[in-house]
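Render Regucalcin in 3D.
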Amino acid sequence: MARATGWGALIIPAVILCSLQMALAQQQQQSQPQIQQVTPPSQHGEGPHWDCGQNVLYYVDISGQMLHRYDPASKDLKSVRFDGPVSPVVPVLGTLDQLVVGVGTDLVLVTVDWGARGVEPHVNQTITLLASVDRDKPDNRFNDGKADRAGRLWIGTMGPEPVVGQVTLGRGSLYRFQAANTSVRGSEHMDVEKMLSPVDISNGIVWNDIETLMYYIDTPSGRIDVFDFDPDKGTISNGRPAFDLRANNITGHPDGMTMDVDGNLWVACFDGGQVIKVDPVAGRLLQQVPIPAARVTSVVFGGRDLSTLYVTTMNKGLTPDQLQQQPAAGSVFAVTGLGTTGHRPGSRKAVVRR
């Protein structure tokens, strides 16, 4: 009897330990991010914007001169071509068919009839020029940009890049675009103010939930900076470093970024093959999510519950061997299982009439 009791004392903890290990393994498996390729490759995927009203993802192919619209529910992907490098794209508040699009260094307002599934989209021939910048630098182009809560657009420029990674530095600026006083459709234009200059490669922009801080990336700096933001005046001040990728031994260069509901930043690492999660207040790296493409360009939370992180990538400039190793490079990837969501109502929209 004593021996039987002894075996029982050994067996019960072993069973409990085995159950705990299995539960832990299942939990770890469930918490691992799931990554899925959701679009075919493009040359230079960038600028993802989730439209919560229509539950679709807009993004661009900068060098391919294309604007794309992806519907996750139907898997429908539609595209519109422009005459020049395209970036960024921001839907217009209060409309279902109007978008603000950067083409070169022109900011234009376009009306697109996307049509039913399987029907080619139609672009209205009336394209309104809202503003132009960097007229003294004809080889410049727009890069990343977003709208703040008031519908003002913050868009940066960069110098020419004849070879991927070889940019003429010091030629860019960060601009703020605000709707001029017009309420007539067809007569829109935007007032422009230069907010930062010179800039090397103007990239990721995002605000905290109450818009008292603006986070900003000038890629060659290797860091994320933070500015005090006045949401009423639309001004920035007191810029300082928030997180340095080099100091934290992170592979890749900071590119586009977004923020989750917990106030953490998700940052695309160009030539790093990953997205990183950063606590910008503590200046601490929280997570690294590998992406099956080296040139990760930008990120945005989307999906009906904003729990999917859409990741754009690039295949331009890759060698044949690199393309063989990264066949999905240039695609959009959907990352789920991250345990967080984006801010509601998601990506902000542009105001072009007041």
